[in-house]
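## tool: complex_structure
## caller: assistant
## args:
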Amino acid sequence: GAGVSQSPSNKVTEKGKDVELRCDPISGHTALYWYRQSLGQGLEFLIYFQGNSAPDKSGLPSDRFSAERTGGSVSTLTIQRTQQEDSAVYLCASCLAGGRVSGELFFGEGSRLTVL
Amino acid sequence: QQPVQSPQAVILREGEDAVINCSSSKALYSVHWYRQKHGEAPVFLMILLKGGEQKGHEKISASFNEKKQQSSLYLTASQLSYSGTYFCGTAGAGSYQLTFGKGTKLSVIP
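## result:
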């Protein structure tokens, strides 16, 4: 597709379950970002990938959160043992080039996670 | 560290002007501005690199004062389509992380 694609668009899960969120970036974009957006909290940085490497994982809120990227393309954000405070919209963005942030980020529509 | 945006919200009538401010406590390499409409993905408006440049995008422009670590977004002759939440994002030199503020909700009414 022409844009960043995320799936699922909506996910309702029970507390304690694991969830996987997927991001398909724009073809050729080497940089990929995950953000979390909670109501009234803006966009919270989670992790950055340059190719398949994650030089900056500083935003992951706990060890229940992990992410990987394969083939320099698709990325998966995994949340283990979900908690109610994990409920948010998870946004993925890709950028043509990595390194210092000097380019436009293209965002996906997000995956809305609700933990009951 | 998260940049601070002000105001948190503003209501304008069509044709009025607005300024949204963004300030950071750390040395900045770049400042980014995005607009997000309800239920949609954030959309890029412009990026300013250190050097104090000013950029324009239709009737929306921005400035970056690197000495003060501040940026301002100027919206002139606002249109209904300008409604949304505006986010500034900042990045330090050598940083991979683009850190966003909490956003400024702009509502333009007829």
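## assistant note: Chain A has a mean pLDDT of 91. The first strand of chain A starts at residue 5 and ends at 7. Handing back to user.
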